[in-house]
Amino acid sequence: MDHQKQKIGVLVMSYGTPESLDQVEAYYTHIRRGSPPSPEQLKELTDRYEAIVGGFFPLRENTNRQVQALEETLNRLYPEHEFVCYQGLKHAAPYVEDGVRQMAEDGIRQAVGVVLAPHYSVMSVGGYMKRAQETADSVGLPISYVKSYHLHPSLIEALTERVVNMLEKFPDREANPVRVLFSAHSLPEKILEMRDPYPQQMMETSEAIAAKAGISSWQFSWQSAGQTAMPWLGPDILDTLKALKDEGVRNVLVCPIGFVSDHLEVLYDLDIEAQNVARELGLHLERTPSLNTDPRYMETLADVVVSKWKEGV
């Protein structure tokens, strides 16, 4: 009977986004650790959101749908248990801490945390885990974490299919071969000194997709670096596009493997900013569709969550 099923909490963590334009200032103040953006910075940020969505914020809805779809997938594939998914956002409510506290309040006694990002870095996924664990310790909730899933077969299959399908968008690809650019959010260069696995995992995902798709003309490029005094990982994708033009490349397909839904970094940094640069350079640029609620991505998450839960049982 249902009431006898073991209830397992799943903390689904992601970066978060403002839900409307009037929340942009508070959101970026949180990102900047309490320091509000200047009027000029706020205008630039607001303009970016307006450029892609006209005030409607798809990322929050995308994340909500992903969490709901994951819960449905878990309960469909593993009906002997009852999985309940909770959101924990880095820079918006419900915060990571809120999700953990809600699980404890709901009587959850077993929990798994997973981040909507396949690649591990101590500065990204590691930060989510640290915040979740501190709150879990304070409320006495046992929780384990999925660190990364960047080579999961279902994930690679879903991304490969997108690359193969989008190559059809280049009718002249026999005469002008397509260069596939895999991309992800840049991080400060100091992670290299820490022997952080993030860059290596990005290359491993790229290599796996290229091998499965039978692609030899590809490379990796970083995007969306922060505007700080410290150097960030490069080359940046805008510089890469200029280099490709000089190399004689005319067709470019971007596959943003570091993002699993339509983030600002995809909808603005790639679809608007990179696309404008490509047009100026005379390049034909396309982008693979985001994973969003692709069933294979949901199955990837469900599989790694259940595997991690079983480790602790």
Key features of this structure:
Rossmann fold; four-stranded parallel β-sheet; 12 helices
Which structural class is indicated by helix and strand composition?
alpha/beta
Q: Roughly what is the average pLDDT, rounded to an integer?
A: 94
Tally of DSSP helical segments = 12
Question: Uncertain segments of ≥5 residues (pLDDT<50)?
Answer: none
Strand-and-helix sequence, N→C? Answer: EHHHEHEHEHEHHEHEHHEH
Radius of gyration: 20 Å
Could you name the CATH topology of the largest domain?
Rossmann fold
What's the β-strand tally? 8
Assign the CATH class of the largest domain. Answer: Alpha Beta
| N-to-C span | 21 Å
Strand order of the largest sheet: 2-1-3-4
Provide a brief overview of the structure.
Helices cover 47% and strands 16% of the residues. With 313 residues, it is of the alpha/beta class.
Task: Describe the model.
It is globular and about 65 Å long. The protein folds into 2 domains: 2-149 and 293-312, Rossmann fold (3-Layer(aba) Sandwich), CATH 3.40.50.1400; 153-287, Rossmann fold, CATH 3.40.50.1400. The protein is α/β, with parallel strands linked by helices. It has helices at residues 24-31, 39-53, 58-77, 96-105, 125-139, 153-166, 190-193, 198-213, 237-247, 264-267, 269-281, 295-312, and strands at residues 6-14, 81-89, 111-115, 143-145, 178-185, 218-223, 251-255, 284-287. The two termini are 21 Å apart. Strand 3, helix 5 (125-139) and strand 4 (143-145) form a beta-alpha-beta unit. The chain has 12 helices and 8 strands. The strands form 2 sheets. Strands 2-1-3-4 form a 4-stranded parallel beta sheet, sandwiched between helices. A 4-stranded parallel beta sheet has the order 6-5-7-8, sandwiched between helices. It is an enzyme of class 4 (lyase). It is found in: Cytoplasm.
